Amino acid sequence: MKQFLGEDFLLDTPAAIRLYDAVADLPIIDYHCHLSAQELHEDRLFRSLTDVWLGGDHYKWRLMRGAGVAERFITGDATDWEKFEQWAGVLQRAIGNPLYHWSHLELRRFFGIEDTITAASARSIFDRANELLARPDFSPRHLVRKSNVEIVCTTDDPLDPLTHHELLAADPSFETQVLPGFRPDAVLRIERNTFLPYVQRLAEATGHEIVTLDDLVAALGVRVQFFADHGCRVADHSLEVFPKTPATDAEAEAALVARLAGETLTPEQTGAFHWVLLTKLAALYHQQGWVMEWHLTALRDASRRFLDAIGPDTGFDAVGEDMPIYAVARMLSDLDAAGELPKTLLFTLDENANKQLAVLASCFPAEGVKGNVQLGNAWWFNDTIAGMTDQIATFAEVGHLDAAVGMVTDSRSFLSYPRHEYFRRIVADLVGGWIESGLYPDEETAAAVLRGVFHDNAIDYFGFMEGSADE
Q1: Contact at 8 Å (CB) between 390 and 351?
Q2: At what angle do helices 385-398 and 418-436 cross, to 10 degrees?
Q3: 417-442, pLDDT tens digit by residue?
Q4: pLDDT digits (tens, 9 = 90+) for 251-282
Q5: Domain check: are 192 and 90 in the same one?
Q6: Are 423 and 391 found together in one domain?
Q7: How far is 411 from 143, CA to CA, in rounded Å?
């Protein structure tokens, strides 16, 4: 029987062990996460292990709720120790959940604590970790340094002034590049009550009166350029509903004018606006040489009761099914035909769509670009051994593994970086297994390919070096 989290954790063959050894120390490129640039700039110490580990971590919250833990111990007014005590008791029995592996990896890699997390060991772990967190070398910046993170791309609203990014870029004492990521969800959500106030703020921020569709696109173009001037290389989209039907500029214009007049839109009008504005944004990204990320099939805020009680983004999302593949193909094709298709990553929460999207992506190549459009890595609920294995195997089987750009952390926690180790081990085991089975003969080339997957490809694909804010 293997030792828990031993040196050969997740590695079942000699070839897998050798491949992992060849890539284990590569720097991390975190091109999509929800870390706070403000927290990195201010670099304040964390209050406790609960603060850094459970605060804002929807994955852990969901697990605790599934175990019947009262909300008071999750997002409520319980003390840090009471919350951690509940978490430890739940995690002890979380057989098969990746959180069990992630949590123990984080405890070992950051704190050097090798105890198994149980209800009985919780107090000792909590106290020892808190002693370390009180030290200056356990601040957010130091945690990022310890993880060997080379580049972080945060997720930022177009109206964010990026003040903390500017301050970080001007601080030579922090080596990790922290770049903004453009996330224009608020301006796409024309059907929501927040849309009209947001458009007013956009107009004020850019000095563009917004009366027409052209006005709106021009104002967004100002913000895109502002982000580009601060080193942005990626635009990220949370597409709860992908528009199903192509629309004309005139139809989108009519929808916008009606909404600005205070009217309630029909689903057809909403869809027309979504379609056209998404294509207009894609053209802006293409001009900048950015990568466009589409996050598909997410069902957000499934519980109305908890949405009303504690708000959005608190762990009540699910896997949706609203991904009209014909519409996705049509939009990519129209952008490609117009010469306005940016490099694009297609993420899906529905692992059954992996092959569908991976094959579709290969229909839109670009000379000199590896994986111009490609299947994004296993995301969110698919951050599991089975999910990661299926995604990367599908990528290799119907595409070119040498083009893959690694994984996204997609996390709000500064302790989440051992997930990259998890991913690297899983992929090394998969490829090592192919080598041991006689399915691929060249281990040296395989190691070079994996170095690309885990580091080099992302540098090239996103153009991080050329897009440095220092240039």
Answers
A1: yes
A2: 50
A3: 999 999 999 999 999 999 999 999 99
A4: 999 999 999 999 999 999 999 999 999 999 99
A5: no
A6: yes
A7: 14
